[in-house]
Specification:
Shape: extended
Order of helices and strands: HHEEHHHHEEHHHHHHHHHHHEHEEEEHE
Number of strands: 10
Number of helices: 19
Strand content: 5-15%
Oligomer: single chain
Helix content: 25-40%
Largest sheet: 5 strands, mixed, barrel
Strand order of the largest sheet: 5-6-8-10-9
Radius of gyration: 37 Å
Distance between the termini: 85 Å
Structural class: alpha+beta
Length: about 650
Amino acid sequence: MAINPESKKQSVSSGKTSGPKNSPTFPPFPAVPHGVTIIPFKDFTPYGYKRLRTETGEEIEVDALGGLPTVKVLSEEEVVQRNKDRKRRRNAGQSADATGRIVPWWEEWEEGESSRTTSEPIELQKSLIDRVHQAADDFRIGRTWPPISSGVRTLWDHFRLYIGLLSSLPIYRKVKKSKGNTDMTCEEGGDASDNDDTPKAKQVNLNIIQDPLEQIAHPGKQLEPNEGEADIMARLLETFLEDMEKSVKVFMSSYMRDKGLIWQVGLLPYLLSSIHGSRRSERNLFIAPTVLHFFLRFMQRNQVFAGFETHTDNLNRAVALAELAIRELPLTARVARILPGMFDAACKECWGYKGSLSMYISTTLDSEDGCTSTDTPASSTIGTFEEALKADHAEIVSSDVVLDSLMAKEVLDDTFGADDCVNVSSPPADDPWVAAITAGQNTTVSWTDVKSDSLLTFLGPTQLPLTHTTGVVEFSTRRVKEIILPETIDSVPDTPSAAVEQELGSRFARVVLEPWVRTPTDELLDIVRPIVTSSSRGAVIKDPFADIIDVCDAYSPSDAYNPCRDDLTILVNPASVDCFRAGLGLCGTWVQMARCEDVDTSLSPVDQGTPSVSKHPRDCFWYLEDVVSIFPSFYTESEVEIDLGQTTDNDDL
């Protein structure tokens, strides 16, 4: 049946209504509220904008009616430039704020942290292992990371390796996009079609992806565990889930120390005596707790352990611990730069070196009575070494002699042979070495001499070397117990030694330290029981752990010094007190500044009728001869020792 085009046109047009019926109407208009007057449009006067000057002198634009500041609307050119900048900036910590200041990566993360979520809601039926895998995956891809050279990614990868989320450290590259590929693997680099039972997040919500890099394994390595490593990684992750607070403690203390994550290459652990080295370590000591704090809060905010109250409470404690570590770990580097202080060095210059490196090697006391340990002078060790060289017919050339041209020729002849021609360019005329040799100053004394501070620098003409001497010498680990600011002099001392101590207390701040090891159960691999050296003088408890206390000298136990019970006090610059925090651990050699009359009394017998006015070591001032280690208050050693054969080719710490 044919359809007439005209009739179809008429039927369509017949459904339309004409002009006035399509116009908006308000039957009826709403009533005017009480007390309100509607201004006709012909009487309306626009207020516009005006510029005001704030109290700080800044001129701003505000709405003339309400006085509210206006918001700048970007032009088309500015919008295009902003989009280009966003595309160009692929790393956090590279953008600038309105004042031109480069915003650090942790501030940039914090700005948008509340909006970062998991790729999909946490399902209650999921296992805890799957939840942690998903949270770690989404935490990594859901943010823009700083450059790899900053070390942030490396420390994050070490943490994932530590808790069993990785079997080896990854390397990063730009994401390779392929046509028709809308799925992105976020953790192990596998395909979405993998059907293994390894817990990991395979499908990712593309809306949360901000990281432009993907992780791949090193050549010959794999990120997923093999059959032999699967059980180990599962054990590590179960250990983390059982006690997240303890796992975070171990990672940010003994694990970072053992794996070298707190050092720069060539530095000793926690020594940080070099300013240049400690600056790098201080950066790492801030990065690690900061990254962990963001991750733990990410799990806390997204309720990863919903339905498991015990794990949620443990996660909350781990978050609080990470906040403590952000404050404490950088302090270990700052304290290492100021200790031993200049006053400690001046005391060491005055009374000599009382400790010995040989006592740091053994963690047990060599003597049967437990009061002393074998102490071998460094000079005898050097002499033995030189004798061994001479026995092998080796010639020893002193380092105090500068090699002049004749000696240099002899060395070259011995090395290359007399017939070999070695071209040695002549030094410039203004070379200070040539001038020194020409003037006959052929020693390196002026080069190797280190300026050492004396007590005169701090105290002026003082009687300290006359009124005090060294007493008990102890190698141990102690915690900061209290920090006391300098006190004003408000009394007249009755003895010269008391006057000197009063002056020291008014010039320096005091740091009171308590023993870290009080019982045998407090001992760790890196924190051992106190060791009293052979150069120590004074009555000391033989075995502080014994039930029946015995004393080295003829004194009562109340008068003897107990290294596992008594506190000691050191003097520090008042400007350095901000670097100390209660609970911080210091391992080193502590030397008592004893009154001369007390030491003389301990070395010679005293009549029973003579009144004793000796000062107990716990009430004396001490100085720190050297520092070996610095520990945070939460220092914990791991009970699980597992090595997955990690690769660190690209680590930049």
